[in-house]
């Protein structure tokens, strides 16, 4: 009984004392924001056909669908071209800032708004990767995903150093963002733009109010107990969101694997052959023919895919087996990106898989990236140092101001 109580108390302390998985959540933040940003940039020339008011799925059809399913999308607030371009650009900008880790809490909310606004505007142009991104953008709002590998981490480090020197640090950007976004939220609510499904509007108001409370406690409360309590609540919410992300990834693989088992083509080991010969999924026909030419290879890949997807949720209790299957799944998604021409689906799935990556591996990955960045910076500085400085002419000609001919 004492051992059980000790284990329970240790588990509670672990969940409440720190935000778990800082490197994993940073990978999720970087992975999904990069996926969405690259998709928006790649589809920028085709944005009108995908989400614009003059696309095949017209604004009137989208309005009828949204009125039935109650989905949130800011693109339904106006059918003007300027509004559409504004939402598209803001979606790309919030993705970039979330990728860099600048004001991650605020940017995660704007990232969610951008994803939901575009995807719910035209729900028939997405694929499995869009569905994963749709879910994960909601979960990201609850995570403290800017603890490492972010501009927020750098700013917090500089603030700690400044406080250690006795300097008074005042954050003006955070309150300014809060005021601007608060005015936008109040205006949208007053104009009735947030009617329909209350999930997203309530979430927006909760996050906005929580940010105000966080700033007020840090600014006006001298006792550290209130701030500690807010930190505990934020850590619990973060850890719960990470658990949900892990469960969601396991559910995706388990569902996909068990549904594959029921298919006759997966049972006879030929399912992988057919997508390789569909024109829509064959950007490299010669490569697809090469991979499908060996019947034994097709059978092994088919059965291996099912086995890995079904077994993965059960391997979480064994770290070594989990890491092996995780590497196999990431490799499989990389192959799908190249062979079947589905890069954004693969990037979304790899970003979801990254929640299971070992912390030691992620630290080595971060250290390697830091060394590469330092080498590049030193090389750029060396090139600049070798450039000759501009010299002034030795005998400049006199300049006559106001002279007449």
Task: Describe the model.
The protein is mainly alpha-helical and 405 residues long. The chain is 70% helix and 0% strand. The protein is built from 17 helices and no strands. Helix 11 runs antiparallel to helix 14 and helix 15 runs antiparallel to helix 16. The C terminus is likely disordered.
The shape is: globular
Total of helices: 17
Average pLDDT reading: 89
Count of extended strands? 0
Percent range for helical residues?
A: over 70%
Gap from first CA to last CA: 107 Å
Helix/strand order? HHHHHHHHHHHHHHHHH
Give a short account of the largest sheet.
none
- The helix/strand class is mainly alpha
Poorly predicted runs: 399-405
Gyration radius, in Å: 26 Å
Percent of residues in beta strands: under 5%
């Amino acid at each position: 009984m004492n051992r059980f109580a000790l284990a329970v108390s240790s588990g509670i302390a672990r969940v409440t004392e720190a935000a778990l998985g800082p490197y994993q959540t940073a990978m999720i933040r970087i992975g999904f924001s990069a996926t969405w940003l690259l998709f928006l940039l790649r589809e920028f020339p085709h944005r009108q056909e995908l989400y614009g008011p003059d696309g095949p799925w017209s604004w009137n059809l989208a309005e009828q669908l949204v009125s039935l399913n109650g989905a949130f999308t800011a693109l339904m607030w106006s059918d003007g071209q300027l509004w559409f371009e504004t939402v598209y650009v803001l979606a790309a900008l919030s993705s970039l800032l979330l990728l860099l880790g600048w004001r991650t809490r605020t940017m995660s909310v704007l990232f969610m708004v951008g994803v939901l606004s575009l995807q719910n505007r035209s729900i028939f142009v997405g694929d499995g990767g869009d569905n994963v991104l749709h879910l994960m953008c909601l979960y990201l709002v609850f995570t403290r995903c800017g603890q490492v590998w972010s501009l927020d981490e750098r700013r917090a480090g500089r603030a700690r150093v400044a406080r250690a020197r006795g300097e008074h640090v005042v954050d003006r950007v955070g309150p300014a963002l809060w005021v601007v976004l608060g005015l936008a939220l109040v205006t949208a609510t007053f104009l009735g733009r947030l009617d329909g499904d209350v999930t997203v509007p309530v979430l927006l108001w909760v996050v906005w109010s929580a940010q105000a409370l966080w700033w007020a406690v840090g600014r006006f409360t001298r006792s550290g107990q209130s701030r500690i309590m807010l930190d505990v609540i934020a850590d619990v919410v973060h850890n719960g969101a990470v658990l949900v992300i892990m469960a969601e990834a396991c559910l995706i693989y388990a569902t996909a694997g068990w549904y594959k088992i029921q298919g006759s083509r997966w049972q006879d080991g030929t399912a992988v052959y057919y997508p390789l010969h569909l024109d829509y999924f064959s950007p490299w026909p010669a490569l697809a023919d090469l991979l499908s030419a060996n019947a034994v290879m097709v059978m092994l890949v088919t059965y291996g895919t099912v086995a890995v997807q079904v077994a993965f949720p059960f391997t979480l209790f064994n770290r070594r087996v989990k890491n092996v299957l995780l590497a196999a799944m990431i490799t499989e998604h990389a192959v799908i990106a190249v062979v079947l021409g589905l890069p954004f689906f693969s990037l979304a799935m790899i970003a979801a898989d990254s929640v299971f990556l070992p912390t030691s591996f992620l630290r080595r990955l971060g250290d390697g990236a830091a060394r590469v960045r330092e080498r590049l910076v030193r090389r750029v500085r060396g090139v600049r140092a070798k450039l000759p400085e501009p010299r002034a002419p030795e005998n400049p000609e006199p300049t006559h101001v106001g002279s007449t001919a």
